[in-house]
Amino acid sequence: MLPTRALGTQGLTVSALGLGCMTMSHGYGSPEERDERESIATIHRALELGVTLLDTAEVYGPFTNEELLGRALRGKRDQAILATKFGFTFDGTKTTGLDSRPEHVRAAVEGSLRRLGTDRIDLYLLHWRDRTPLAETLEAFQALKAQGKILRYGVSNFDTSDMGE
């Protein structure tokens, strides 16, 4: 078994090593060069070795990485801590901007839950900050947490120097 670490302050314990899934469907190589069976086998092997933290985002693909991870976790969901990120807007498969307004947070989480094939996201992250007041995004996170759709939340690619709004 891998050693574990506390991640953040919300009571989340994860394996010291995590698996970032982005490159399984985004970022490197062409879609024809990617092998979904190999990616799913990699995820399964990581779980067998004790990796618990699996990281993805709606923008990876976009959407296809969450779908891939959802397929890989069928029957294995309780072995994984799922982290996914949101915050982009899309026109089909092209990103068109950033959006962390509460209504977008609610819509984005529903899409991620559906694609991941789960009823909960263990760690939901704002991928990139936009001009939405952070307090509004945090209120949306709190509401989703109260509904049990997300268990914990946080931020990614975040500059703490702009915290004083």
Report what the structure shows.
The relative contact order is 0.14. The model has no long low-confidence stretch (mean pLDDT 94). A hairpin with a 4-residue loop joins strand 1 and strand 2. This protein starts with a strand and ends in a 10-residue tail after the last strand. The strands form three sheets. The chain has a five-stranded parallel beta sheet, covered by helices on one side. The longest helix is centred in the middle third of the chain and has 15 residues. It has one domain: TIM Barrel (Alpha-Beta Barrel), CATH 3.20.20.100. The protein has 165 residues and is an alpha/beta fold. The chain is globular and about 40 Å long.
> In this structure, how is the largest beta sheet organized?
5 strands, parallel
Order of helices and strands: EEEHEHEEEHEHE
Strand order of the largest sheet: 3-4-5-8-9
Alpha-carbon distance between the two ends: 43 Å
CATH C-level label: Alpha Beta
Instruction: Flag low-confidence runs.
Output: none
Record field, number of beta strands? 9
Instruction: Tell the overall outline.
Output: globular
Helix count, per DSSP?
4
- The assigned structural class equals alpha/beta
What is the radius of gyration computed over CA atoms, rounded to a whole number of angstroms? Answer: 16 Å
Number of domain modules: 1
How is the secondary structure organized here?
Elements: E1 4-7, E2 12-15, E3 18-20, H1 36-48, E4 53-57, H2 64-72, E5 81-86, E6 88-91, E7 94-98, H3 102-116, E8 123-126, H4 134-146, E9 153-155
Parallel strand pairs: 3-4, 4-5, 5-8, 8-9
Antiparallel strand pairs: 1-2, 6-7
